[in-house]
Amino acid sequence: MRALILKALKEERHISGEQLGKRFNISRTAVWKHINELRGKGYEIRSSPRLGYTFIKSTDLLLADEIASCLKTRFMGKRILHHDEVTSTQDVAENLARAGEEQGTVVIAEAQTRGRGRRGRSWVSLPEGGIYLSIILKPELMPSQVVQIPLIAGVAVCKAIRKMTRLEPRIKWSNDILISGKKVAGILAEMSSEFDRVNFVILGIGVNVNTRGSTLAKLTGGIAASLAGKSSECISRVQLVQSLLQEFEKIYIKFLSSGFNSIREEWKTYDGTIGSQVSVVDGGTNISGKAIDIDNDGFLLIKKANGEVKKVISGDISVIKRNCEY
Ligand code: BTN
Fold first, then answer.
1. What pLDDT does residue 313 have?
2. Is the CB of 275 under 6 A from ligand 1?
3. Nearest residue (CA) to ligand 1, atom 10
4. Is residue 187 in contact with ligand 1, taking CB distance under 6 Å?
5. Cβ(132) – ligand 1 distance below 6 Å
6. Ordered mean pLDDT values, 10 residues apiece, the chain (326 residues)
7. Residue 290 in contact with ligand 1 by CB distance below 6 A
8. Residue 88 beta carbon below 6 angstroms from any ligand 1 atom
9. What are phi and psi of 256, to 5 degrees?
């Protein structure tokens, strides 16, 4: 009922309680209760004796109906579960996937109490303007190919940010999204698999959208920044989620049908690593050298000072110097 009232308000702009009541066969008091609930969710609705209810502004809460209203996807986000606060959207999505939830379902939260990042790190998840979402995927891939999913998700995140802002995001291999050297988004893929098949993947994406830059800087030791902080404008989280899901669906379909190789060139247009002097810990050994390329499987190729080329599939790289020679 609330969704119907909201739709009517958006379409009509001005409509009286009496008209709404008649249309939906409910009392004016019931209409008033629904309107107050919508206000509680952040919708701005004015009431006046002359015009009745006037729809002023949508909420910026990441409500399922709001996201679904202009979402142009085939299956990504067809079901969206919104929470005010969870431990981690990864946990909620994993439980759903284990219970048989479909591919494409999205769990989204306004805040997380135990948001997690890669390698056991935590992810700052304040109820203050971030996007914290997890997507359930059921790809027909070998488990070894799943490492490529965060790579393609990185491209989708960059494209969505580019569409919604004037910012120029870059990917620090493998999937940190940076703007002017500060991390604005992170990607985490967790998998349940058998020896030769994937049961499901939970793809978690965190974006610092309107979070206050100074708060993030304090909580992350200056590593992170927000899109709003970098662009000096407030960004619609709802539209950014829509764009993100749309971009991700396109690239995911292409990846499943044609492999990572078909996305490699596009990935490279957002790359902020190749050409730099980097160092990475891979299986306990430290590899340092120049990042020279990524291969058809998404491995980073590092040329050591002695000319040897090493392939690295995952890990946290430290950029020592940009655009080095040798
Ligand atoms: C990283 O850069 O280390 C990855 C960060 C991933 C954060 C997102 S926020 C939504 C989802 N839920 C989590 O607990 N983590 C991911």
1. 80
2. no
3. 132
4. yes
5. yes
6. 87 90 94 93 91 91 90 96 97 98 98 95 92 98 95 98 95 93 96 96 97 91 94 92 98 97 96 93 85 94 94 84 62
7. no
8. yes
9. -65, -35
Give me ligand 1 centre to Cα 276, in Å: 26
Q: Establish whether residue 89 lines the binding site of ligand 1, counting it when its CB lies within 6 angstroms of any ligand atom.
A: yes
Residue nearest to atom 9 of ligand 1 (CA): 206
Q: At what angle do helices 2-12 and 28-40 cross, to 10 degrees?
A: 90
Q: Give the CA radius of gyration of the chain.
A: 22
pLDDT at 322: 74
Ligand 1 and 243: CB distance under 6 A: no
Q: What is the pLDDT of residue 228?
A: 94
Please, what is the Cα angle at 297 between 296 and 301, to 5 degrees? 80
Angle at 145 between CA 300 and CA 156, to 5 degrees: 70
Pocket test for ligand 1, best of 123, 147, 178 (most atoms within 8 A of CB): 123
At position 154, the amino acid (one-letter code) is: G
